[in-house]
C-alpha cells in the first residue's frame, strides 16, 4: 500500500505496488468506513483484486489485510522512512509497469523498519537500487579517471562514476562523497549513511526528477534526512 485519498463521500482511491503489475491505482468502495479505513495504511501488505470494464479504466479494488506494519508508528524515524519509501515509489514508478526485483527489495526494506535498528543503511542501499531499477544507476566499481579499484572516495556528479582520491586532484571539492556505506563495506553509522544520501539525493533530483519534467522530490524524503541528522547530532 503506497497512498490513499478520499473520493466522494464513502470511497477512497488507493495506489499499491504489486510484483506483477507495478504501481497500480484503483477505487476502494467504502474505503472510509470503520471496517476498511484501518486496513488502508501506507506500508501495509494487502491482498487485492482489481476489476474494471476496460483495461484503461481505473477500476476498483477489493482488499484483504495480510500484514500490518503498525509497529512502525511508535518510532518517528522509522515512520519517516516508511513514508519516504512509499512517496518515492509513487513519485518515480510508471503506472502498471512491473518491477518485481524492486518489489521484493521494498517488501524486505519495509519489514526491516520495525525489526532492525540498522535499517538506515538498508534504506540507503534501497535508494541505490531504485536508481538502478529506473535506469540511473551509479557505477562505483572503479575510478573514472585512473581505472583504480582502491581508494574510491568520490562520485562524479555528472557521470555517476566513482573517483579515487588520486583521480580527483584539484576537482575534489566539486565531487560528491562516496562513503564506505555506498560501497557495501561501511559500518552503517549515520554519518556515512547521510553522506551516501547526499549523493543518492543528487541523482534522484538531477537524473530521476529531471526525467519527470523536473517534478520536485517528495517532501517525505527530506523529512527522513532531517530526522536522521537529528539522531546523528548534526
Helix and strand element order: EEEEEHHHEEHEHHH
Please tally the helical runs, counting DSSP H or I stretches of 4 or more residues. Answer: 7
The computed structural class is: alpha+beta
Question: Biggest β-sheet, characterized?
Answer: 3 strands, antiparallel
Structural description of this entry:
- This protein has 234 residues and is of the alpha+beta class.
- Helices cover 38% and strands 19% of the residues.
- The protein has seven helices and eight strands, in the order E-E-E-E-E-H-H-H-E-E-H-E-H-H-H.
- The strands form three sheets. It has a three-stranded antiparallel beta sheet with strand order 1-2-3. The chain has a three-stranded antiparallel beta sheet with strand order 7-6-8.
- The longest helix is centred in the C-terminal third of the chain and has 22 residues, at 190-211.
- The chain is elongated, with a radius of gyration of 19 Å.
State the gist of this model.
The chain has 234 residues and is of the alpha+beta class. The protein is built from seven helices and eight strands, in the order βββββαααββαβααα. Strand 6 (152-155) and strand 7 form a beta hairpin.
